[in-house]
Amino acid sequence: MSAPDPALQWAWLARIRRTQGRKGEVFADILTDFPEKFADRRNLWLVAADGPVQKAGGPGPSHLGTGDGIFSSPPREVELVHHWPHKGGIVLHFAGVDSISAAESLIGSFVAIPLTERAPLAADEVYIDDLIGCTLVDVAGPTPVDLGTIEDVDRTAGPTPLLVVGGAQGEILVPFANSYLRKIDLAAKRIEMDLPEGLTGLNAPKDQSS
Predict the structure, then answer these.
(1) Are 29 and 15 in contact (CB under 8 A)?
(2) Over its length of 210 residues, how does the chain's per-residue pLDDT go in tens digits?
(3) pTM exceeds 0.70, yes or no
(4) Contact by Cβ (8 Å): 73, 51
(5) Which string of DSSP letters, residue by residue, matches 53-109?
(6) For the chain, which terminus, N or C, has the lower number of CB atoms within 10 Å?
């Protein structure tokens, strides 16, 4: 087991919620789109909840948020011995964690891997959280319109994630639908979408003078 590089950014896989059983197992919420990849992973990291966990655009981690900086408790590398799905989450058992009291010390921690070790995606796929910080541009008209910066992604509203965009006209919620998407340039932090007329005005501030 080695010490983490202070410059590492992290991809969150799960968050430990409680103990499970009597032999050191823990139950965790799944924060990754690829829970099946636990079968391929042996070396994971535990990031204490009291560290400076970051998620751009929000106060806490998402299914693939990133965290960086100096942690008050350094990330700890652990070996995953067993795991299995359980009631919408996952049960994890780490080497050396063999009692309820040892498992209790892990409650609240995030299970993570370095961002560079995330599962590879197909050419036409993108990690949702990589969109945060990108500029959203509407190319529906003859002149592209800069709508603002993607500040967060709401994945709870339905099957299609909503981009939370902060711009000059206030907060805009834009469905991240393939039918609207025209171009993703993560290197340039630019997302181009062909949006239906009127969609960007749905969340515009009301005129208080009328």
Answers:
(1) yes
(2) 555 555 567 888 999 999 999 999 999 998 887 889 899 999 999 998 654 443 332 333 333 334 444 455 788 999 999 999 999 899 999 999 999 999 999 999 999 998 888 888 877 788 877 898 999 999 999 999 999 999 988 877 778 889 999 988 789 999 999 999 999 999 999 999 999 988 877 655 555 444
(3) no
(4) yes
(5) --BTTBSS--TT----S--SS--EEEEEEEEEEETTEEEEEETT--SHHHHHTTTTP
(6) C
